């Protein structure tokens, strides 16, 4: 108990003196998507973490981690129509909202897009192809997204990770195609993959 | 096993046709599939089967009391996000049509043949528990370990608990340049402050706290363009606190020129290595490197020839490496001996040259060279009703995403066979009931998924007490004790 009190008061002192960032305004923290911020480490009881908070993650708010955003469901200006093309080639139109995360959106609509690392840029299972007219409207991928994309089978010029695409009005009509990673992939000659 | 299945066990069931009355009964008409191995391959195969057909029931058997295979025992402790996939697997395990039976050793407690009798289909997804050996003299000396065992040691695999690696010498040499080799290097050189916030085991943490290892060489037979690791892992080495890179510039001759023809993933990785090896860093980085107490580096064009022992032949004192040159380029380049050798002083040698699957049953059609079960798209050759997925199917390389696709393919083959009638699922099969009876007779008590969840809760709460995500139980005995409590 005393230890927890010391930790929380130390956290307050450090935040007031601006030695540490204030986590309360960060969307990662609010959506419980932050794994290495101060508050999380305090909760986990890691006293010495203050010196090595961010070894892995960048806290740029451009990165998207964790649950999808929620925007005003009623406002027509918030509607973004997207089309998923599934692995069999079937086109599935989805009426989505500004702020929706393309990976979680797909899952909510029963489209088979896996997200094994849960949007933390540690896998490539949410790999999608973006149609050319919309590809350039997306923000440049973070280096970490590129690193993960490098591990995706059938990488193409228009490949992105679905969990890093957040819908905005400019993306109206975007088409996201799931890569056809079929049995033929192995028939082409097994190439040793990293592990 | 649920109560209502027991209720129906005595009924003789009418099985012809597809009457609605029959399809409501849980027993009898439902296709029953058994999966051997509860790592990513097993769980992803189960997930797809359950999704594809509303009548399939899946039982997953696992040798250890705990599930998840290499996600738990292979993924590095400082890569916790990769382990998030456990949540997906947990959802699958909690489905009513999926059951987990831990602490059951297929091959010893129950045979593959007995499983084939009990189930409509058996999917082998038990991965690769063996090692490729270097095949050089001195490989059995104290101080030499397979990377799989070293990783198993710091990740709490019960069979690796007694490894006691000797971390008392300054230099460690790792053979192999894949991601497992880099994980080992990173764990050997990571600051304790970082490791102690992970789920690395307590004994490993204590051993690493006393470690004298300051320099790690990651050795490969071929050149920079042939490394098997990926850019994320190399970046982590470059950014490792208190460690400086030490590469041999000459190893990179001709590499810059080859860059333009490389596919993107290989190009980005090679660019990073080139930059690290050849570029003069800025002042701040120069400073950081000169103050670093640890060092790491790739050594290229070297093959192990012999592990050299100290005078009493009691332990490793060094390694003799043959110098190679490259013939050809790109993925197909071959290492050719030049005749020169080089000795490197070191007290720890970790061979990270590949895992290897083992045939758990002599009846399995096995390719010993590739160490895989012979199959066509997941269907085991000349064995109706037998399938395979994961590394056992394609060989021991690939990340979770690769295994996922591989498992989905096997599930597709199996579902296709069920849908087309190639696999006859109209025959009644007893499934887990008969296996349970066999196991009970043999004194084997399976661990259910909710038993595992008790183990999970204990590990989580022990971890919380010491500021770690979990504190793993290290022995099968302890795991069973908690499971039965």
From TrEMBL, chain A:
One of its GO terms (molecular function) is metal ion binding. Residues 81-182 form the 2Fe-2S ferredoxin-type domain. The keyword Acetylation does not apply. InterPro entries: 2Fe-2S_ferredoxin-like_sf, 2Fe-2S_ferredoxin-type, Adrenodoxin-like, Adrenodoxin_Fe-S_BS, Beta-grasp_dom_sf. Gene3D superfamilies: 3.10.20.30. Pfam families: Fer2. GO terms for biological process: P450-containing electron transport chain. Its main location: mitochondrion. Belongs to the adrenodoxin/putidaredoxin family. This is Ferredoxin-2, mitochondrial. It comes from Cyclopterus lumpus.
From TrEMBL, chain B:
One of its GO terms (molecular function) is oxidoreductase activity. The keyword Transmembrane helix does not apply. NADP(+) binds at residues 177-180, 221-222, 233, 398. Its EC number is 1.18.1.6. Its cofactor is FAD. Residues 32-188 form the FAD/NAD(P)-binding domain. It is found in: Mitochondrion. FAD binds at residues 41, 62, 70, 106, 391, 398-400. Pathway: Steroid metabolism; cholesterol metabolism. PANTHER family: GLUTAMATE SYNTHASE 1 [NADH], CHLOROPLASTIC-LIKE. This is NADPH:adrenodoxin oxidoreductase, mitochondrial. It comes from Cyclopterus lumpus.
